[in-house]
Design a protein that fits this description.
Layout (H helix, E strand, L loop, with lengths): L1 H21 L32 E8 L2 E14 L6 E10 L9 E9 L4 E10 L2 E10 L4 E9 L8 E9 L9 H9 L5 E8 L2 E16 L8 E10 L11 E6 L6 E8 L2 E11 L12
Antiparallel strand pairs: 1-2, 1-14, 2-3, 3-4, 4-5, 5-6, 6-7, 7-8, 9-10, 10-11, 11-12, 12-13, 13-14
């Protein structure tokens, strides 16, 4: 029974980490910091690429086993000019019939115009209940309040708070979902960023290397090589269930800068996340034209 429980947790964690790799990864083991890494404040093009209503669906696979799907959606934009804020959501679901895996989770974030987190809510089904984690940033006082509790359903506002932690923060930070949009905003910057990241109620840093390698990838949803910008990075904190290693991502080489494909190493082997469906007005994956 213990062996089965470990395998179930490992597969569940694999899907979660694959989702957050799509958000540029969050569960890796710390590596030696590159000498060229620096904390930058000239964060790039803001969130002009975002389109309210955009919906992207990805499939997560481990070798030839299809584990589940990740669906992201841009919900809204509030304010204008330098005071813009955005909200987005991600639905993570394992496929039925996968041995030892039964995962249903929802991540929701609000972000400022530079795609840093204003607030974050994670909901994960746990039997008949849902485990709820909330991040509330107080940037004026450099604090983050983390609430943990349970609810009867994923949409219930009646959350039973069981624990509240307070974390000191020195700068703007990322949650697991806002990091995806930060990566999209900066993928063409040609720079390297050391980004403060809050994961599982703990502080860490995510290194993002946007070296601007122009290349192409193949996906089942497109009948041609897709024109992409490649990047890589690592998360500087230890994840659950021994998940570790660097990650790679490929975003569309156009104004939308949409995540097309990602790869990482986990305890079970290599995991791939691939774009399967998209809903964005006027967009389709750009075709790669060799020079």
């Amino acid at each position: 029974m213990r062996h089965r429980h470990r395998r179930k947790n490992t597969l569940n964690a694999t899907v979660i980490v694959a989702a957050t790799l799509l958000c540029s990864s969050w569960n890796a083991v710390a590596q030696n910091k590159p000498e060229t890494t620096e904390v930058r404040n000239d964060f790039a093009q803001n969130a002009d690429f975002l389109q309210v209503g955009e919906q992207l669906t990805y499939e997560v696979s481990w070798w030839f086993v299809k584990l589940g799907t990740i669906r992201t959606k841009v919900l809204s934009q509030q304010g204008g000019g330098g005071d813009r804020h955005y909200s987005a959501i991600a639905y993570i679901d394992s496929y039925s019939g996968i041995p030892f895996a039964n995962l249903h989770a929802i991540f929701e974030t609000t972000m400022d115009k530079e795609c840093f987190s204003d607030s974050f809510v994670a909901r994960e089904q746990d039997g008949a209940k849902w485990k709820i984690t909330r991040y509330r940033f107080d940037r004026m006082r450099n604090k983050l309040f983390v609430e943990n509790g349970t609810a009867e359903s994923e949409v219930s506002n009646n959350v039973r708070i069981e624990k509240i932690d307070t974390i000191g923060i020195e700068s703007k930070s990322q949650d697991g979902l806002s990091l995806l949009f930060f990566a999209r905003a900066n993928v063409k910057s040609g720079k390297q960023y050391d980004v403060p990241t809050i994961i599982q109620s703990s502080k860490g840093n995510t290194i993002l290397n946007f070296h601007g390698n122009h290349t192409n990838v193949e996906i089942d949803a497109a009948q041609y090589p897709v024109d992409v910008i490649e990047f890589n990075g690592e998360a500087r904190f230890t994840g659950v269930f021994g998940l570790s290693g660097p990650f790679q991502g490929w975003f569309s080489n156009d104004a939308a800068q949409i995540p097309v494909k990602a790869k990482m190493k986990v305890i079970l082997g290599s995991v791939t996340i691939e774009l399967k469906r998209w809903e964005r007005a006027g967009w389709s994956p750009p075709s790669y034209i060799p020079k």
